[in-house]
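Human:
Take a look at this sequence-structure pair and walk me through the tokens.
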Amino acid sequence: MLMMTKPRSSAHRSFRMLPVALAVGLACNYAIAQDAEQRADALRKDLATPESRIDVGAGVLSGGTRSFGLYNGMNQSIGYGSLDISLIKREEETGTWFRLNGRNLARDNRELRLEHERQGDWAYYVGSRHLTRNDPLQINTGLKGIGTDSLTVSAAAPRRNIQLAVEHDSFTAGLKKFIVGGFEVRLSFKQDEKSGDRLYGQGTPGTMNFLTEPLDRVTRQWELIAAYADPKLQLIGGYSGSSFENKLPSINVAGSIATLSPIAAPPSNQAHQFHLAGGYNFGDSGRSSFKLSRSVATQNSVFVVPPALPGNRETSPGGRVVTTLAYGDLSLRPTARLDLNAHLRFEDRDDQSKTAQYTAAAIPTATTALTTAGLTGINVPRSLKQLKGQLEAGYQLEDGYRLIGSLEQEQVQRNIPVQYRRVAYRERTDETQARVEIKRMLSETLNGGLAYIHSWRGGSDYVNDTYNQQTNQVNPLIWANRRREKLRLSADWIPEESWSVQFRGDASVDSYLGRNLGPRRGEGLLLSTDVAYQYSEKWKLSAWLVQERNLADQTTRSDVLAGTLGDNVIWRARLRNTTSAWGFGIKGRPTGALEVGAELGASADTAEHGIQRIGGTGTDPLNPSSLPTYAYHQVTFKLFADYALDRSSGLRADLMLDRRRNNDWTWQNFTYSDGTTVTIPERQNVVFIGASYHYRWR
């Protein structure tokens, strides 16, 4: 008999296959999880293993490179090599790092630094740097002896073009040792050697001769520090020293003004300082810090020509300045909404230099009061004491508002000089500043703040110049009575994850009171905007715009300028400086191996003098109203492409166009009395094309 078998349903077949599917799924999940863990482990190892890199390339520069190559080591239209290295090694077992970094090793602004460190135990470093500053001025002169301290000025000597440059060669070294218990000791040293020649001059109101200043100077700095730190207390203190050695202390000039030779150069000097600083944490509610230091600076170099005056046996100025500094602050949060901050700073700069007659005495007369060098010929030490304190409070209001208020007081005390002065003097100045600021998170994407700052500066009565009444009308800028009003607006806007906008605006007005001549009013305006935009995962854009305007309104008299009393012509100057800069950048990765970017930026700087006669009955041969406006413009375009050959290497190409234009009339065919001419090119256009290869390894 035949038996009929019932067909199996699809559900039944699926049920029978379920264990197989589960097994396969578990195996796949295990494989996926294992692969993810392996990738994560590889990523951790990749991040923990430092990357080394070397870049080698070359480029060609053409055009007017004087201003472009001021500091970057490329001031000629020739080919240049490039070499950058970054060697990093880490020993996993001991936590020891080795780093060797080199930048621009094939140029005149090269830098090399080696660091060796065992984490939590010791570290040391050594480094060197070479930097050349090439003077952008074009000089045609007959001066002889350039490069030495013996110069000869001659209008009849044949002239030639020269290029002035100053070279810096610096060396740094330091070490650090960690000691058990939070203690640490540091030692550092830096030496900078400066050599070359820079622009100099010699003359009187009727004669100006071109000179160069030879440089052969060494500046050294050293420091020994001990530090301690734990969760509450941090202390750091030690000794710092510096010295300046000028190996060419004077310049001897022949064939010129005999009374102005030799000319003294900056004298050698040294300084020593002991200091202690620290901080203490009062749990989560407050912190206090302090700093104490005392330094002694001396300058005892022998005079180039010791003064031959009766009763004066000094052969050096005997310079000695002792400075004491004390600082302390306290930050508290008594409640969750209230923050309090206070700080106090005191500085006493005691000038203990010798007081002696170093020049011949000369009593001013009615017609030479402003051109006479001095009355007694006796130097006067300049001592200064400064006390500055500030109180600030911040309170969190409702609806996301935060209110901040501060009060700052500064007092500066100076010693009164006993000798004749050209400008009236003030023994003490006091300045008070108050600030009120409110901030708010306007929304989840917009934050803003508005601050108002008011300050007032006054002080003691002026110590008048008893030899000339015109200078007693002058209100010197550094200690004139001044009222300042300042408004500051800031905002951060992030409308969405791909957008970011930052804005800041400052506006200020200064009013000067008390005297007729000198500064009368000042205005300042600063507007700054930065925008960043993530167009897609592959492309990013950025843009910025900055504008700054400053106005200084001041007055003077021709008899004060020229040194001839009774001229009585009053002039007004409205000095206006405007600086604008903008730029746009784009960076992206069109393919996985190719990254490209471009940046276009421009800046403009103009200075207007706005000089006009506003009073007086005399005539003025100086005619300062003829000063033209100064303008400087620069446009720079950069383009790069970086192509990855593989995970370890790649090629990069760079293109840069730089255009500069100025009408610097102060150096447009300026001619000295000896026939030397100095000028700066009105237009300078530079093109740079470069290519490099980089290799990375771990």
Remarks:
- Residues 498 and 534 are 5 Å apart (CA to CA).
- The chain is about 5% helix and 60% strand.
- Residues 1-18 have pLDDT under 50 and may be disordered.
